[in-house]
Known about the structure:
With 55 residues, the chain is mainly alpha-helical. Helix content is 47%, strand content 0%. The longest helix is centred in the last third of the chain and has 26 residues, at 26-51.
Amino acid sequence: MRPIMAGKTPQAVTPGDEPPPVFRSWGRLYAAVVAYLFFLITLFYLFTVSFNGGR
C-alpha cells in the first residue's frame, strides 16, 4: 500500500506532455519551428525584393 501524502497530488504524465514521435524531443520541435519561420521570412523577403526591382 502506498503512503498517502497530505496535500500533494502525484505527477501524472498525460499524453500532451510527450513530444511528437517524429521529432523525439521538444528541443528539435522548437528548432524545426524556428527554421520554418526563418524560411518563410526569407522567402517573403526575396519575393518582395524581386518585385521591387532589387531596391
